[in-house]
Amino acid sequence: MDPRSIVRWLRREEIDRTLRQMGTGNLPIAHSTIDQLPPGPRTRYFRRLLIDADTLPPIPVLLHELNVFVDTNAAQLPREHAPILRRFHRRVVLPQLHRRYRDNGSDITIGVFTNQRSATLARARFLSWISEQGTTLADLDQSTLDYYLAHVNARVTINQLVGWATRSRLADELETHPQPIRLAPSTYSEDELWKHTHQLLEADNVELAVRIIGLFALIYAQPLDRSVRLTRNDVNVHAHSPTVAFGSTPVHLAEPVADLLRQHLGAPARRGFATGTSSWLFEGIMPGEHLSPAYARLRLSENGIRTRHARTTRLDLLAAQLPASIVADTLGVTVHTAEQRRGRSGGIWSSYPALRD
């Protein structure tokens, strides 16, 4: 356990002053106090450290920061437009995020946080611009909207806001343009998959945790966001063949990958915190948090591995060889997704490898 990294964070001027005032009773020991600090990684680290030490109640930190960010930007808008930004966030954005993350008991990812923060800024700029034109969203006409959309890159974000405002009768009937169709990601060949697999098995220049996460994508079609959220309870290394619970049925790891996982579990914690060992399989920098999927993606891309392409290829290959139910309950995808993948790859499964075994 190394407390020096914690002390360095606590000695930051704003954090040190806040911590002293909380300790002396001049400020309440509450999340609302932390909200008054400048937003960013330092404040986030401080908040998570206090949560991890059971000083503050646990909350989804990034989702909470996003809510504070929206309120802060709304407060800077003209009076007629501030409620619109808040209401759109509360009625459109939050329900989508809750369905995707909170139902699973998890916080949003840093990538989602960054994207939603950028979208909030785009909406706020749009509403500010409307006010500068001497009008309101309720009185906005089609030509003014089209002029704005022709000069910005956030057309999809603005169209979402305008479409919701029209349906909610907060604006006149305004025409919005559909979101461009996103092309399916490129795929690897099977030979490329195995080439990158062998590369990661021997890549001593890449952190062991990142190598394992990459192998989970290359061999077991696991998205990085899901791999980093695995806990130590999801693995069993005491059996003859170590298993990982990606879905409802644990998957037996191939021996080269199993050996790397044993090494990872047997290594000292990457960072020591006052509250002890993390329950995450891949511990992150922030107290009580898992490794960032963005960091894993960056390190793998530096070695020429595009994990989205790799996962798509592997999922198609497995779906062509396995029944949809096997793919679903071992890899953690839905049966519908597995069926779609099998149809796309044109596969049959009269014979298939015993993935469960």
Number of strands: 3
Strand content: under 5%
Low-confidence stretches: 348-354
Helix content: 55-70%
Structural class: mainly alpha
Helix count equals 17
Mean pLDDT: 83
Highlighted features:
357 residues, 3-stranded antiparallel sheet, single chain, mainly alpha, 17 helices, globular, 2% strand
What does this structure look like?
With 357 residues, the protein is mostly helical. It is built from 17 helices and three strands. It has a three-stranded antiparallel β-sheet, with no helix packed on it. Strand 2 (243-244) and strand 3 form a beta hairpin. Helix 11 (208-220) runs antiparallel to helix 13 (255-266). The longest helix is centred in the middle third of the chain and has 23 residues, at 110-132. The chain is globular and about 70 Å long. Residues 348-354 have low confidence and may be disordered.
SSE topology sketch:
Blueprint: H1 4-10, H2 13-23, H3 31-34, H4 41-52, H5 61-75, H6 82-100, H7 110-132, H8 142-149, H9 155-167, H10 190-201, H11 208-220, H12 224-227, E1 235-236, E2 243-244, E3 251-252, H13 255-266, H14 293-302, H15 307-321, H16 324-331, H17 335-345
Antiparallel strand pairs: 1-2, 2-3
Helix pairs in contact: 5-6, 5-7, 10-11, 11-13, 11-14, 11-15, 15-17, 16-17
